[in-house]
Amino acid sequence: MTTVRLPLFPLNSVLFPGLVLPLNVFEERYRAMMRDLLKTPEEEQRLFAVVAIRDGLEVAPSAPGLPDPTSQPEQGPTAGFGDDPLKAFHTVGCVADAATIRERADGGFEVLATGTSRVRLHSIDTSGAFLTAEVEELPEEPGEEAGALAAGVLRAFRSYQKRLAGARERSLSTGAELPDDPSVVSYLVAAAAVLDTPTKQRLLEAPDTASRLHDELKLLRAETAIIRNLPSLPATDLTRGTTSLN
Description:
This protein has six helices and six strands. It has helices at 28-37, 85-88, 146-167, 182-192, 197-204, 209-229; strands spanning 3-11, 20-25, 47-52, 92-103, 109-125, 132-137. It comes from Streptomyces rectiviolaceus. Pfam families: LON_substr_bdg.
């Protein structure tokens, strides 16, 4: 087993390989992380690991509040994550490559990163200015009949998009061609579908591409049926990416 140590950025969302992640970094622990990443030469990858938070706060409290209005908020890299951060996070995440790190006048950063590969967390170091983790890269196995499943998922996804656009009474823009590589399809659909974080995390952790596609096919058919029967069902706008508050 080969592991590497990477800076760790916990979020209330799941990052998938190949997907773009914009970040608005303002907390000091993550500012310190970005300053450290900027020490890496531009021609090299500036990598950090993103994990979804299982139990904790993406943004640490910054002022006294309930239940004790006089208690000072916790400070440091583990703020909001409890005594054992490893228990607060899902243990499978995604490596992000920060192609753009732009420092603002206020000391914060605007970051544009892209997911590269899945990793499993083995340990977390809390001794520095920001969290770091020992991670192991997880291979992406194709599984059985991934190609056929990908074709079925793409058909179901197009139907899902049309139903969702109709429920929201808006036109659907699909100018870009959808990919045909099974693993790329599986991650694109996992990221674009309106699903809760535990479901997206389950898709990220799938043992192989075929298993992920099989799960997505069931999810898309179920979601499409719900939208068909409840056309006023609110849904997240698929055409916009979210930016972390951090």
